[in-house]
Each structure stands twice: as C-alpha cells, then as structure tokens.
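Q: Okay, next protein. This is 16S rRNA (uracil(1498)-N(3))-methyltransferase from Diacronema lutheri. I've checked the sequence twice, so it should be correct. Can you predict the 3D structure?
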Amino acid sequence: MRWHGRVRAHAAKKRAALLLLSTAASLGSAAKPRCRLFVESRIAQGARVQLSDAQQHYLLSVMRVRDREPVLLFDGISGEWLATVDHTGRRTCASTPLEQTRPQDGPTLAVSLHFALLKPKRLALLVEKATELGVHALQPLVTARTVVREVSLDKLRATAVEAAEQCGRLSVPLVLPPLTGVEACLHSARGAVGSHVFACDERPECTIRLDDALAAAAASGPLRAAAFVVGPEGGFAPDEFALLRGGAQLVSLGPNVLRSETAALSALSIMHMRM
C-alpha cells in the first residue's frame, strides 16, 4: 500500500508539472501581460505567491484581471517571472509563477542619491524618476536650510515600488531613513568600497562638469559605486559646504541654477548614460 501511495503521489506531481509547462507555453504565445507586480516573498516555480490586499484590489477591482490571466512578478532576487492570477474568492486572489522570463541582473554600478528633503509632491517625483534611472539607494537628508524635516518612508517606498513595476527594472531601490547633517551624509556616501562621492552645486568653486568628473574617475579604473549629494532649495550653508569641499568632489551641472529635484535627476541622467 505504501508503494502504491508513493506511485500515486509521484504521478500527481508529474501531472502538476506537465500542467504548469502546458500553461506556461500557452501563456508565452499570448499577449503581453497587462500587470507587473513586485512581491515581498521569494518566487519559485509552481509555488503560489500570496499577494497583498492592495495588490489583490488592484488586480481584481481596478484592472479586472480574469482567472488564469498572465501577470509578471519580480522580487528583487529571483528575476522576473511569468505567472497566472488564481481567483480564490470574489475579491481575493493569489498568483502562481510558471517560468522565469528574465534572470536577476546584478548592478554593474551601485548609485546612491543623497538629497535634502523636499515638499511631498516634488519628493514623490524625485523618487519616481530616480527609480526609473536605476538608482540603487535613496538617502534623504536634513540640512541646515531644509524646510521639510519629516517624511513617510512607507509612502516613499510605495512610490519606488510602483515606479520599478512600471519601468521594468528587476529591483526596488533602498529607501533609507533620513540622516541629519552633511558629516553623516559623507560618512554614508563613502560607505561602499571604492565609492566616488560627487557634490552637485552651483557655486563658482564647482568648475568641473559632472560628465568630465565621471570620465576622469572611470579612466583610473572601473566605476563600482558612485554617490551624488544634492542640497536643499536654499543651498548648503557655508559650514556644510566646507565639509563637502573636504570630503567630496565638487561638480557643476551647468550654468543655470537648478531646483533640487532637477539637479538630482540631471546628475542621475548623466550617470545613467554610463551604466
């Protein structure tokens, strides 16, 4: 009886595997999935992924995804996977990964952005576009002239997740708790081995263009980590700028005075062309 039980169990597993392969093949020839989701749990072929309440609402009530409709999943570790949406109730669903569509790609260059806190709308724009431009870590700062001094990290992370889902990247940037002061900022920015730290400012002392500074840094060896520091709307205070002058390379982003979010995204755009 035990032998027959093992045979039946093996046959059931084989049928399930064949069903997964058949479903994956049929989905592979179908239209591109309409939805792409970041999930917190590790993805494995055939292992059902439990979706958050917000994701279930989005799929069922907003996108009106049908049962067994294909979606794309990624977890920041296992690459991107083709999966199906499995309706488990009128307003609940889960997802079953079928096959990997893209392997996880490790960043060739870890880029961190250290930026003074902004007002909510402009901060959300900064996080969204920085995610699209491939930033590895987002480090908010509180400086002497920072007006906004509190921030919801949950909201920032939600914005980063949504941007990662939309732009097709396979990871979500780290959203770190705010640091206070330029000294703490520099210590954090220099954390990665071989990291190059660039402070972007419009002062006359900043005569080297960022693209030239990056070219010079790359000429001495492969760039593995780079950090960009951008101040608040009122700029860095004199004592803060003195610390930056001693701990980072001062660079220019052009002749115009840029708003903080424009300066940050300009720096990331220049870096993005080299990634």
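A: Here is a summary of the prediction. The longest strand covers residues 93-102. The CA atoms of residues 105 and 255 lie 37 Å apart.
Q: Noted. On to the next one.
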